[in-house]
Amino acid sequence: MTMPLITATAAGVIIILQVILMITVGLHRAKTGISVGTGEDRDMERKMRRHGNLAENSGLFIAALALLEIVGASRPLVLGLAVTFIIGRLAHVFAFSSLVGSHNEPGGMIFTVGRGVGALATFGTGMVIGVSLLIYTL
């Protein structure tokens, strides 16, 4: 069996990013005294959405990427998918570092583009992994 080393590396990067985002939420909670929910604080909502979006997308991605690597997909394919997903997640984090990106407030278009890049990278890597798993296993 092939050990999913590329996936393990990607998982390491993603978990570090997840912990950093978790800390930003915790620090904002400590600063504002909001212990549960958003308290109608838009910055809290933005930080929670940034953290939650990574959490809801990365687990399935890592599991599916590991399966793809284990069934023998080419290293360039697995590496390309891992890098694309991580770049997309970083673009999303960047987009949600501003209310422009998270709440469509007026401002720099770069935040809106970052949000689109994040969504497209997540969608694209998911579709490629799904189709590839079917090809490798059927």
Report on this structure.
It is a single chain. This protein is mainly α and 138 residues long. The protein has a single domain (5-137), classed as Membrane associated eicosanoid/glutathione metabolism-like domain (Four Helix Bundle (Hemerythrin (Met), subunit A), Up-down Bundle). It is built from five helices and no strands. Helix 1 packs antiparallel against helix 2 (42-70), helix 2 packs parallel to helix 5 (109-137) and helix 3 (75-95) runs antiparallel to helix 5 (109-137). It is elongated. The protein starts with a helix and ends with a helix. The mean pLDDT is 93.
Keywords:
5 helices; mainly alpha; Four Helix Bundle (Hemerythrin (Met), subunit A); elongated
Layout of secondary structure:
Elements: H1 5-32, H2 42-70, H3 75-95, H4 99-103, H5 109-137
Helix pairs in contact: 1-2, 1-3, 2-3, 2-5, 3-5
Helical amount? over 70%
Written as H for each helix and E for each strand, in order along the chain, the element string is HHHHH
Question: Which parts are unreliable, with pLDDT below 50 for 5 consecutive residues or more?
Answer: none
Separation of termini? 18 Å
Any idea what the shape is? elongated
Mean pLDDT across the residues is 93
What's the total helix number? 5
What fold name goes in the CATH topology slot? Four Helix Bundle (Hemerythrin (Met), subunit A)
Proportion of beta-strand residues: under 5%
Second-tier CATH architecture = Up-down Bundle
Number of strands: 0
Q: Biggest sheet, in brief? A: none
Tell me the Rg in angstroms.
17 Å
CATH homologous superfamily grouping: Membrane associated eicosanoid/glutathione metabolism-like domain
Number of separate domains: 1
Task: Please report the first level of CATH classification, the CATH class.
Answer: Mainly Alpha
The secondary-structure class comes to: mainly alpha
